[in-house]
Amino acid sequence: MAALAPDHPVFCVRPAVLAKAARQFLEGFSGRVLYAVKCNPAETVLEALHGAGINQFDTASLQEIAAVRGALGGARAYFHHPVKSRRAVRSAYHEYGVRDFTVDHLAELKKVVEDCGGGIAIQVRFATPPGFAHFDLSAKFGAKPEPAAALLRAVAKAGAAPGLSFHVGSQCLKPEAFGVALALAGEIIDAA
Questions:
Q1: CA separation (Å) from 164 to 42, 87, 141?
Q2: Which of the ends of the chain has fewer CB neighbours closer than 10 A, N or C?
Q3: Which SS3 state, helix, strand or coil, does residue 58 take?
Q4: What is the DSSP letter of 161?
Q5: Is the pLDDT of residue 1 over 60?
Q6: DSSP state letter for 95
Q7: For the segment 65-124, what is each residue's pLDDT rounded down to a tens digit?
Q8: Spatial contact of 122 and 161, defined as CB atoms under 8 Å apart
Q9: Sheet holding 161-166, edge to edge
């Protein structure tokens, strides 16, 4: 590649390696597996992962939802950005068939419930304690425990299937962050 002296960045993908890693992960993890499209939304990457058996995708924008729904027949997109425009909510639901959304405050829940029909699941994103990751995202997104419990009750009252989600932060190198977050999830569920 150096001999070609490209003027622009060169994107090299090894789909077989991606597919092998995806299959290994799926074999070793019994839970639901979603690929976060924002990590690498290239169609080649999405197709390799989908071909390996990943059929559910964490999306944060209409562009990501369109990429999943357009390139990957039968794949399921989850709209996990906790703050969305009404147009994005309506388009995700009515045009792309998205039925899974994430919220972290009451106004967002109201928007999703009003702009979607029935049959939706809404995950309440809660804030995790700081100090585990290089970039703490809980200062930006996520409800504190007490409001998260109230939101869970409101989701159920609205007729949507309730759930919880969290993000331990970007570049988290401390596995104990997940244990702390799961313990906090249990407390929120008990409070709800």
A1: 28, 24, 13
A2: N
A3: strand
A4: E
A5: no
A6: I
A7: 999 988 888 899 999 998 899 999 999 999 999 999 999 999 999 999 999 988 999 999
A8: yes
A9: 34-36, 56-59, 76-79, 100-103, 121-126, 161-166
- The DSSP bridge pattern shows strands 170-172 and 133-135 to be antiparallel
Write the CB contacts of 108 (distance below 8 Å, at least 6 apart in sequence): 82, 83, 84
C-alpha to C-alpha distances, 56 to 16, 31, 89, nearest whole angstrom? 19, 12, 18
- Which amino acid does the sequence have at 37? V
Quick one: CA dihedral 90, 94, 98, 100, positive or negative?
A: positive
Q: Which residues contact 109 (CB under 8 A, 6 or more apart)?
A: 103, 122, 151, 154, 155, 158
Per-residue pLDDT tens for 139-168? 778 999 999 999 999 999 999 999 999 988
What's at 17, amino acid-wise? V
pLDDT at 140: 77
Beta strands per DSSP E along 70-169: 76-79, 100-103, 121-126, 133-135, 161-166
Cβ distance 37 to 68 under 8 Å? yes
Integer CA distances (angstroms), 40 to 13, 18, 36, 47, in order: 11, 12, 8, 12
Write down the pTM of the prediction: 0.88
